[in-house]
Design goal:
The protein has about 475 residues and is an alpha+beta fold. It has three domains: about 100 residues, no CATH class; about 110 residues; about 240 residues, Aminoglycoside 3'-phosphotransferase, Chain: A, domain 2 (Alpha-Beta Complex). Helix content is about 40%, strand content about 20%. The strands form four sheets. Strands 6-7-12-13-10-9-8 form a seven-stranded antiparallel β-sheet. Strands 1, 2, 3, 4, 5 and 11 form a six-stranded antiparallel β-sheet that branches. A three-stranded antiparallel β-sheet has the order 14-17-18. Helix 4 crosses helix 9. The structure holds adenosine-5'-diphosphate and ligand LMANGFYV.
């Protein structure tokens, strides 16, 4: 009979959050299978090690096991397959294995665990100091293009389960907690987390690793990407009109978002370490960008014609000379990471780039890296409705005008909100924008090949 490992080998690569798309799975091991609730062996938290091209990545799977005939219809879409029963499961010889994130009867235990500070073997459930956590709420999985899996409990909480596991405290929990402690109005309050000790393959040591974060659910939130996309759609529906006259103008929001971003950067610099990069450190930063560019060109050959121009921009950063202030930053900032609530903009997902080890993501960086991320996102919002239609010069000009207007508004808001004026730091800003666009080309090649033209077209336009 099929083993669970075989089922997972077929299932994992098909998941949106699986990072190793495009490469074959050479081996898969279940490194840990924690029964989360004593007496409930049908709910397990798996740490699954996946070997691809000699590299091992670890993923978290909340696994449900039931007798095949007792899987209810509403869980049919979550079934991974039927496999032989684990030795410690006192039940039928064959069980249906399914993604228990979709099973509200199972996920209720996660909330209870957090509320009760449970320790279950090496898995620790914790609530944030002073946070009372309500239990008995039903969860639903948020759908969407995500690197993780987020559950919404009633109207109260979201529980973000980190799918790809990197040893260490997840920056999302770390930075959101730090900002909440200083009373920032621009983040959603964390209520708790789940962690376990996971072995760091590089050091062989086991370190506490964040598995999930429980956070305030922002009920009135509208995704920044959705708002921006609506504005672009309005513009395309008004041929010949400039963005400021087209209705649905986004510039006011972009400006407020810039100010909110500056406030968050200011708070992060106040409560967490800061430093200044001198010329040698800048040269190393530029070298890292070049290394990433080389790897990207090897993976996506369409980048090759632009490599020289991109490299030149990185070298300019390396030779900057003037000191570069660095601090903790968001690290993967874009319109899908911000939501507009009744009270204003709120920043989410301080996790950084999920494909980068947590150790790297905890390093200090220039806040202009986040600014560059958001400017790239304006460019994405302007271009994505043009995929396959770039031969319409009027629409292309409208897209350019929209991105430029919102870019200026965001930078103005950022400077007004107390940040440096991004437009006065062109060399740094450009290098970060190019570096992000290179990252995006690889990201799209792996996850959304039909969108790869978006960053590639921007790189063509940016590098001339
Ligand atoms: N606290 C929250 N309140 C309301 N919606 C949220 C909250 N956290 C996340 N979301 C929604 O879930 C989406 C994905 O969350 P995010 O943290 O960015 O996960 P991922 O790392 O998987 O992209 C966000 O774009 C937002 O729409
Ligand atoms: O939000 P995540 O942490 O999952 O970030 C990853 O996925 C993002 C896409 O969902 C990706 O962002 C890119 O696409 C966005 C539009 O969908 C665009 O606004 C961003 O500018 C662009 O970078 C992000 O890079 C990736 O890490």
């Amino acid at each position: 009979m099929t083993r669970l490992e075989e089922l997972l080998t077929a299932w994992l690569p098909a998941q949106r959050w699986f990072a190793g798309k495009g490469a074959a799975v050479d081996a898969l091991r279940i490194e840990a299978a924690h029964v989360l609730v004593p007496g409930l062996p049908g709910l397990r938290l798996l740490v699954v090690a996946v070997v691809q091209n000699g590299r091992t990545d670890r993923y978290q799977v909340l696994l449900g096991l039931r007798a095949p005939e007792s899987v209810p219809d509403e869980l049919a879409h979550a079934v991974i397959g039927v496999c032989e029963s684990p030795a410690d499961l006192d039940g039928p010889p064959a069980v249906a294995a399914y993604d228990a994130a979709h099973d509200a009867a199972m996920t209720a235990h996660l909330l209870t665990g957090i509320a009760e500070h449970r320790d279950v073997g090496p898995v620790r459930f914790r609530s944030a100091p002073g946070a009372g956590v309500r239990t008995g709420l039903r969860s639903l999985v948020l759908t969407g293009e995500q690197s993780n899996t987020t559950l919404v409990y009633g109207e109260e909480y979201v529980l973000k389960t980190f799918r790809r596991l990197w040893p260490g405290l997840n920056p999302d929990l770390e930075l959101t907690s730090a900002l909440t402690e200083v009373g920032s109005e621009y983040v959603a309050r964390p209520y708790g987390w789940i962690e376990a000790d996971v072995v760091d393959p590089d050091t062989g040591r086991s370190s506490p690793t964040t598995l999930a974060m429980l956070q305030e659910h922002l009920r009135s939130a509208t995704d920044g990407w959705v708002l921006a996309a609506t504005s672009v759609r309005d513009l395309y529906a008004s041929p010949g009109l400039p963005p400021e006259q087209a209705g649905g103008d986004f510039a006011g929001e972009a400006q407020r978002l810039g100010a909110a971003t500056a406030a968050v950067h200011r708070d992060l610099a106040r409560v967490l370490p800061t430093d200044v990069l001198g010329s040698e450190a800048q040269a190393r930063l530029a070298d890292r960008m070049t290394t990433r560019l080389r790897a990207a060109v090897a993976e996506v050959p369409q980048l090759a014609p632009h490599a020289e121009a991109l490299h030149a921009a990185f070298e300019e950063l390396g030779a900057l000379g003037a000191d570069l202030p660095v601090q903790r930053v968001h690290g993967d900032y874009h319109l899908g990471q911000v939501v507009r609530t009744d009270a204003g903009w709120v920043l989410l997902d301080f996790e950084g780039e999920p494909a980068v080890p947590v150790r790297e993501r905890q390093k200090l960086s220039s806040p202009l890296r986040d600014v560059a991320g958001m400017l790239r996102s304006f460019d994405y919002a302007a271009r994505y409705q043009l995929v396959g239609r770039t031969d319409d010069p009027e629409l292309v000009a409208a897209a350019r005008a929209w991105a430029q207007r919102n870019r200026e508004a965001f930078c103005e808001g950022y400077a007004f909100g107390g940040g440096v004026d991004p437009e006065k730091h062109q060399v740094v800003l450009r290098a970060f924008e190019y570096d992000k666009a290179v990252y995006e080309v690889v990201y799209e090649a792996r996850h959304r090949p039909h969108w790869i033209s978006i960053p590639l077209d921007s790189i063509t336009a940016l590098t001339g």
